[in-house]
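Researcher: Let's do a round of design. I'm pasting the structure tokens now; please hold your answer until I've finished.
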């Protein structure tokens, strides 16, 4: 019976599990960013609260893209159970440090999945993952630049306020000017 069910999908069990693991990771990222938004809001960092809310929405969109792909390929997409989301953070800066760490972890996870796809000769999934890998360039860039504001501006005096105002304005340009 198990072999008959596998005929309904071109995804191997290993790749399907890897994608479902990534679905969970994206859901956890979404929950973490929403928690960061709440922390920033409670601590008077309104602009960063909006930024993290937007990040939460983006991560949920990523989760849904992966979910749809597994379903479209005839696999079984699993809605993840998210628990133990951190709600308190040590400092304004630590929120951004954790955000960058999370984005790097997501990039590493996607890279491992792409590697598995190549080894399994699953080029359809490998091609599908290219959008996510390209997206991670922007995600890491923005997180890194936001964290760099703490070095450039500093948190003393009105520094935190200035950082808060600038965070939503960070953009990634993926085109090179000629």
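Researcher: That's everything. Go ahead.
Model: Designed sequence:
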């Amino acid at each position: 019976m198990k072999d008959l069910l596998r005929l309904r999908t071109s995804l191997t069990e290993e790749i399907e599990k890897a994608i479902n693991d990534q679905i969970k990771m994206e859901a956890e990222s979404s929950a973490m960013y929403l928690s960061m938004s709440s922390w920033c809001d409670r601590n008077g960092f309104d602009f960063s609260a909006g930024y993290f809310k937007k990040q939460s929405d983006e991560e949920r969109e990523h989760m849904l893209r992966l979910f749809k792909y597994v379903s479209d390929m005839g696999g079984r997409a699993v809605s993840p159970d998210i628990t133990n989301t951190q709600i308190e953070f040590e400092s304004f800066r630590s929120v951004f440090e954790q955000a960058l760490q999370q984005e790097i972890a997501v990039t590493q996870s996607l890279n491992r999945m792409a590697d598995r796809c190549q080894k399994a000769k699953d080029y359809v999934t490998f091609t599908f993952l290219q959008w996510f890998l390209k997206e991670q360039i922007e995600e890491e860039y923005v997180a890194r630049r936001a964290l760099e504001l703490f070095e450039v501006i500093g948190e003393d005096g009105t520094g935190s306020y200035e950082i808060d105002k600038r965070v939503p304005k960070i953009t990634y340009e993926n085109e090179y000017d000629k």
